Amino acid sequence: MSIQEYKRKRDFRSTAEPAGDDNxxxxxxxxxxxxxHAARRLHYDFRLEMDGVLKSWAVPKGPSLDPAxxxxxxxxxxxxxxxxxxxxxxxxxxxxxxxxxxxxxxTWDPSGDADKGLARGKMxxxxxxxxxxGTWSLVQMKGSAGEDGKxxxxxxxxDGAARDTxxxxxxxxxxxxVLSGRAMEAIASNADRVSSNAGKKHxxxxxxxxxxxxxxxxxxxxxxxxxxxxxxxxxxxCELRVQLATLATTVPTGDRWLHELKLDGYRIVTVIExxxxxxxxxxxxxxTDRFSSIAHAAERLPLESAILDGEVVAxxxxxxxxxxxxxxxxxxxxxxxxxxxxxxxxxxxxxDLTQTPLVERKRWLASLLLTETPNNDxxxxxxxxxxxxxxxxxxxxxxxxxxxxxxxxxxxxYQGRRTKTWVKIKCLKRQExxxxxxTKPSGSRIAFGALLLGYYDNDRLVYCGRVGTGFTEDxxxxxxxxxxxxxxxxxxxxxxxxxxxxxxxxxxxxxxVAEVEFAQWTDDEQLRHSVFHGLREDKPxxxxxxxxxxxxxxxxxxxxxxxxRTRSKSTxxxxxxxDKDKVAGVRLTNPDRVLFPQQGITKLALAEFYEAIAxxxxxxxxxxxxxxxxxxxxxxxxxxxxxxxxxxxxDRLRGVQIDDEKKPSxxxxxDDLPGLISLVQMSVxxxxxxxxxxxxxxxxxxxxxxxxxxxxTNWWAVVTAAGHVRDLLRELDLQSFVRTSGGKGxxxxxxxxxxTEWNELKQFAKAVAERLSAEHSDRYIATSSKARRQGKVxxxxxxxxxxxxxxxxYSTRARPNASVATPLRWDxxxxxLKPDKYTVLNLRNRLSSLDAxxxxxxxxxxxxxxxxxxxxxxxx
Length: 876
Fold this sequence. Notes:
The chain is of the alpha+beta class. It is built from 18 helices and 44 strands. The strands form ten sheets. An eight-stranded antiparallel β-barrel has the order 1-2-3-4-9-8-7-6. Strands 10, 13, 14, 15, 16, 17 and 18 form a seven-stranded mixed sheet that branches. Strands 22, 23, 24, 25, 26 and 29 form a six-stranded antiparallel sheet that branches. Helix 12 runs antiparallel to helix 14 and helix 16 (758-775) runs parallel beside helix 18. The longest helix has 18 residues, at 758-775. The radius of gyration is 31 Å and the shape is globular.
């Protein structure tokens, strides 16, 4: 645990590096950090927390996600734990003098005993970081290359987080700091991390010559910029990674949000250097020549250096952005109709403003464009915003056929990645798709009939329908000329159309991108009512993925809805309104019948419980065949399973016909809260839905592992089992969620897109269970034999077959304490939390205290079981 060598090498009067005296508390879990270090030679310092210090290795070329790359890692002296947040400049002449960036950080989990692994010369571990994840190994080199014991190899394991270097080089693609979002140049140009006791003053960066447009104006503008909060003197960066917005379904509320109209054009970054302007797309393509009129307008600004972020658009006669008109203007070389709306200013006049609050950046930008540029002919425009009033903004944007709204947190910094401090809300569903083929024209149509579209899901090009409207005669001919040289004999789609949908199709290489507007996604994952808006040249096909909302706010009780706060109509208010026996419009017979005697919970109380948590429970049970546990005389009476609809059941229930092995049967389905309350009227105490929805019963959308402790097995063994299931799934690149069963165990649930068939689902689940039971034969068992389960946890994979069910999230259990199956965050799972902790009596308090769902993004995740996942399981 000694860091004496670290301290011996440093003079803490001269360097701002931590001395290792910080014992402040920090988040749980073992940390790792990778620091990019421009000393005499650029390298990456890879550090793992062990025994109270950071064990450290210098990796000259940086980590690689490619399992074929074995990166040299030279072990160096241990560093103190508080070094994990050090980012700044080590003064010249000090040990390791140069710039240090926090390139990645997160937690790590060793496989086995880490100390023994380090001593043996081989450590295997899992990383959970922002750039590095999955399973890795550090292997000590032998022979002459490893004589002094310091030379190791850092190797990525072949798992779901692995990437081929030719496809994605993480060092090249993600150069920015995870701590501040800054580039190395920006960090190097700031002395804010250098100790004031260094003995020398470090001069500020060299000032560029004054702008030609007016020396006094330039000086005044620089002085104003210097006064902005968190403005930092800095050299202009060589490149800027733009900040991107996360798709949301509802506009955020509150005065801390600024709302801008979403513009339908090309995202363009303008770099002004020595008074000359260059224009770049978000991917770094130089489009200065295409938009020379905008470059000339930018050069008329009274600035010698700046980086502007905005959107180039063309406006129709009503002032609305029109992407088709923009494309036509570019093709015909007519730039008089082009307008550049500028909405951000991350760098200006020798100052880095990325850490300046957005509202302050925009205030200064507005002053520049509206008052300091008298010769502006309208080519450069300020993209204004409205503070708060989000719902009114989106309402007006949609009413006037705008694309949508971009909402931004007023105090947020500028971060070169997709964030949730910027969110976009679209009026119409609209995104880019890759063109993989076209059909023959018919009737009076020329060139072609329709374009076949797809998007990338990892390395798979997924077919998702076609677009045949929105073209002009000119665009038909122009697109056909682009398609012709790209014709090929076989489809690039992983799931090309078949049968009649395939006839008359000409396949093309997936090199063109189309922007398409559409009404919705159908249940079979196809586009509905699509309209073509133009080809996109600014986005490479490999970056085109299916856009799904990542942020949601409460809405109707759909599969994709997020929960609201709990709510209820009190019993007294029901009595005052004369409908004391009605809940959600459903009249209860015998409302005072006690269903849970130990707690005194009546039928009416249970109905009011479900009414209060409707937004939490309904997304998990609506539209799915249900198996029901009915207890007509309450929990202590006789209970039985029922799954078929009968004529005596309430009208709010309906049926879905399912072809069982012997004969067709009609299963119970509910659509809404009245349907759920109708089940309470029938004294249903447990809801067990199928892991598939009624419209695609042949394609399950969930994978469930029931962790059932055998006799003599303690609770901690179940918690540990859940962690092992999660980790194995994570190695396969599957995200999982955990819930209490309300009984003795836990459920680990994996949401899936509807591509896997039942037999594949069961085969995969069985392989996971058998893999874990083989690796931990003293802990787990994958067979249901009760005689063999003594002291072990049964990993029940049998819930993953046609007709099998598991209890629903937020369903009560027919148990004495009225327990409820409750979703948890993974970090809530510990030995103190019991599987039946949450009940009808206390669950509402839990839900009312939550700021967000414990299962964030559960309904939005797009992941599926692949053949390679199963192959890796079976080979292990």
